Amino acid sequence: MNRALVSGSFVLLGFGGFTLVALVALISAADGGPLGLPIDRLASPYALRILGFTLSQAFLSVGLSILGAIPLALIVIRYRRFMGRDWIIRLLALPLALPPLVAVIGLLQVWGRSGTVSDLLQFLGLDMRLSIFGMGGVVLAHVFFNLPLAARLMITHLERQPDTVFRLADQLGLSGWSRVRLLEAPLLLPHLPAVAGLVLMLCIGSFTIVLTLGGGPASATYEVAIYQALRFDFDPGLAAVFTLAQLVLATTILLVLHRFGGAPDDRAGTSSRPQMGGENLPRSVLALLGVYGLLLLAPLVALAAAGVGAEWERLVLLPRLWSATITSLVIAACSACLSVTGAYLLAVGRDRGLAPRGVARGLYMAGYASVGSAVLAIPPIILGAGWFILLRGAAHQTALAAVMVIIVNALMALPFVLRVLAPAHQAAMRRYGSLCAGLGLVGWRRFVLIDAPVLARPFAAACAFALVLSVGDLGAAAIFGAYDLVTLPILILNLMGSYRTTDAAGVALALALFVFALIWLADRINRISL
Amino acid sequence: MYLSRAIRFAVALVVPVSFAGSAWAQERVLTIYTYDSFIADWGPGPVLTEAFEAQCSCTLDWVAPGDGVAVLNRLRFEGDTTDADVVLGLDTNLLAEAQQTGLLAPHETDLSTLELPVEWQDETFVPFDYGYFAVIYDTQAIETPPTSLAELVASDGSQPLVIQDPRTSTPGLGFLLWMKAVFGDDAAERWQELSDTILTVTPGWSEAYGLFTQGEAPMVLSYTTSPAYHMVVEEEGRYQAAAFEEGHYIQIEIAAAVAQSGELDLAREFLAFLISPQAQSVIPVTNWMLPVAPGSEALPEPFERLVEPTQALLLDPQIVAERRGEWVDEWLNAVDR
After folding, report:
1. Cα separation of B161 and B146, whole Å?
2. What angle do CA B198, B201, B203 make, to 5 degrees?
3. Cα–Cα distance between A508 and A488 in angstroms, integer?
4. Is there a contact between B267 and B261 (Cβ–Cβ < 8 Å)?
5. Do B81 and A402 touch (CB under 8 A)?
6. Residue among B241, B291, B278, B254 nearest B131 (CA)
7. Which residue on chain A is closest to B19 by alpha carbon?
8. How far is A481 from chain B, CA to nearest CA, in Å?
9. Is B65 helix (H, G, I), strand (E, B) or coil?
10. Helix crossing, A236-261 with A3-28: angle to 10°?
């Protein structure tokens, strides 16, 4: 056992323990205790229908998100000097940071019955209105959220590849399909299962989107059943059963994907490659970008247009708006800090702390994979409820609630943060590992002298990503309901919940700009951020 | 080192809030659990706080765990360890389950001034406002709204309706009970007929009302008082409630004192204050519901113009508590698409 392994394991135990304790607390609060869990409810027609719907929408959503993301990633990688390229990459991070309800409203302003597209059809004399409620709407919304994420992950992956590969391809004059076949596909394919796994987690755990756009109760996920069991039936045992079902389902799919892909290879690379294309994009590429624009940008534009119409002179004077902004920032900053520190220590444990084989490594890697993906299959509401049971009656509920929200947000951001930091750390290890070993640099000194400067940019990028995810998060903050803990997304929901739709649109725009500023900042610091 | 500053800042932000209670230990504190919109800047909370603190020489400490259901669940989770002296914002559909916790005390309040459309004789719960569920329609899209629930059910679906999910939302459950109260054993069949008219079923009121005001659907399930908000605050008469012949299902919002509160007398004083003329003139225009007792000031004129149901429908809370699960399953099977 060495220090790297100890610190990595400590993080694993911390995050894993936090999750397990919540689940155990919930199960022990069940009426029949752990042995009396209503497992049989999983075979009820209702639960089976949930399983069917969850699987079909998740696979459809993942398939379309991945397929749609590939051309976009390839365009960005092939053409490196066209106008607006940086903005495309930045915009890709935005959807994930929006509260789902806000995104749903933006999507409906484009695709809804009275949305822009329907109005266009009417204008063209076609007497038809789109109705996207049902599977179509659910998948559309999931693609809107996840295609950009998948594209960003692919771009990051491709940009990490060694220059030499691309140089060689350029010298051989590879272009078009032969370039795809001989260069891009082999680079990208091994990476796809990892991306698919992450996107799948997000689709399985979808709640607001599935319910609002699903069209009816036939469209439900386990998350809906968990929510119902916990709130309306007040049945912690049943909630725990559905959570376990979701966890088993997610883990099974992840393992299958893992068989296909394994871990993506993390070779060190830089982004200073020679340009292949000039500044003028071919027409076909422009047309393709237009399609992406309609799909991804139009809803955002619609949201911005609605937000501009808010009464800003009154909004900026709302004390709630400012306290919510500060609360969001503080919670997000703390979560990001925790998440990034955790991810760094996990990566250190993985790359430096272990013999290449053995039981310890197997255990560690299993834990690493769980907190790196499967954790997303546990609904924040479950974590909150479990800890709430444990902490009830404790003093300083607001302070505790703040701490809980920070931990839950950090946990939910961890899979994303790991995907930015871990490959960068591995690359740094390859480059400086033997130097450090030779100089006897370990622990804190090694961090200050080597890792901090070398990994500054990935750190900044990971931090920004974690910030963005926590700012837009609703799940965790809504559980404890401490009145003093109002974040921007909660404020938006509160405004919408009391007829103030235009104010809500204004705050949503403020949130989007705030998040966008964070992304822009991170991008300035790190040109190849996720 | 902005991160360490941020952490210090976070501590500074959180700590005073959590110690605020202890600093005022000399003064009596009344802790009230309620739903979040009640204590929003624009809700009744701030105004009621000022008025009550002026008469009680005490401090009100509000806790908002979410909506009405979340308030009840917080109480159930905490059981004997609860800090609450008063729970406010449950409704008639949660009444039986709240009663079953055994945590609530008799209100011992004089309810003779109540002017509710139904008889109120409960000894634990004090009603503070009420509303009728109603289908709100957009007058720019619909000229002749349905005049009965039966007509709505039989409509061809060209004018879709958005409702809320009875599994996750109070109005959603209210509509389920409305259907049950009107159609009884035929409810499942009627749900099937209605399902072509339902555009979607949202998790909560906000999502549904958002879709409606966005023009996505010309009808939404809400309250007869919703048009009052638009007419009073936005001076906009576009959204109106459809009056239904069979009558409208009523939702009465209630409050109760917690039995093991150290401030039981103060809690009861607060319950009495809730139905005082002063409070009753504030609650309707901040919570957008109807008053349960005479207020000290007249309500804004649009309140005069709201739909007044011919009959207030209300199922026995005890029966609702027992059969809710069964009815939700019936609904699930009927509208499953």
Report:
1. 11
2. 165
3. 8
4. yes
5. no
6. B291
7. A396
8. 4
9. strand
10. 140
What is the pTM for the complete model shown? Answer: 0.85
List residues bridging with B317 in a β-sheet.
none
Counting every residue written for chain B, the total comes to 337
Cα(B151)–Cα(B197) distance, integer angstroms? 11
In angstroms, how far is the first alpha carbon of chain B from the final one?
56
Cβ-Cβ contacts under 8 Å for B309 (sequence gap 6 or more): B117, B132, B224, B243, B244, B247, B248, B250
**Cα–Cα distance measured from residue A244 to residue A177, given in angstroms and rounded to the nearest whole number:** 45
Rounded-to-integer distance, Cα A288 and Cα A64, Å: 15
Tell me the C-alpha distance between A235 and B186, whole Å: 30
A183, containing H or E segment: none
Does B10 contact A500 at a Cβ distance shorter than 8 Å? no
Which is it for strands B248-258 and B28-35: parallel, antiparallel or unpaired? unpaired
In angstroms, how far is CA A164 from the centroid of its own chain?
32
Cα dihedral value A486, A489, A493, A495, nearest 10: 70
- Evaluate whether B204 touches B120 at the Cβ level (below 8 Å): no
Chain A residues within 8 A of B167 when measuring between CB atoms:
217, 224, 228, 232
Query: Using an 8 Å Cβ cutoff, are A217 and B337 in contact?
Result: no
Chain B residues within an 8 Å CB radius of A112: 214-216
8 Å CB contact of B78 and A104? no
Q: How far apart are CA B58 and CA B52, in angstroms?
A: 8
CA atoms within 13 A on the CB side of A186: 9
Contact indicator for A102, B207 with CB cutoff of 8 Å: no
Check B66 against A399: CB less than 8 A apart: no
Tokens of A206: 């979808």
CA–CA distance, A397 with A80 (Å, rounded to integer)? 51
- Coil/strand/helix, residue B104: strand
Beta strands in chain B (DSSP E): 28-35, 58-66, 86-91, 104-105, 126-138, 161-164, 198-202, 219-223, 239-242, 248-258, 290-291, 312-313
**Distance in angstroms (rounded) separating the CA atoms of residues B22 and A398:** 14
How many CB atoms sit inside 10 A of residue A280's CB?
Answer: 12
User: A235-275 pLDDT, tens per residue?
Assistant: 888 888 999 999 888 888 888 887 776 444 444 444 444 44
As a whole number of angstroms, the distance between CA B13 and CA A484 comes to 10
Per-residue pLDDT 10s for chain B (337 aa) are 334 444 444 444 444 444 444 444 457 899 999 988 898 888 999 999 999 999 988 999 998 877 788 888 888 888 888 889 999 999 998 899 999 999 999 999 999 999 999 999 999 999 999 999 999 999 999 999 999 999 999 998 889 999 998 887 889 999 999 999 999 999 999 999 999 899 999 888 888 998 999 889 999 999 999 999 999 999 999 999 999 999 999 999 999 999 999 899 999 999 999 999 999 999 999 999 999 999 999 999 999 999 999 999 999 999 998 998 899 989 988 887 5
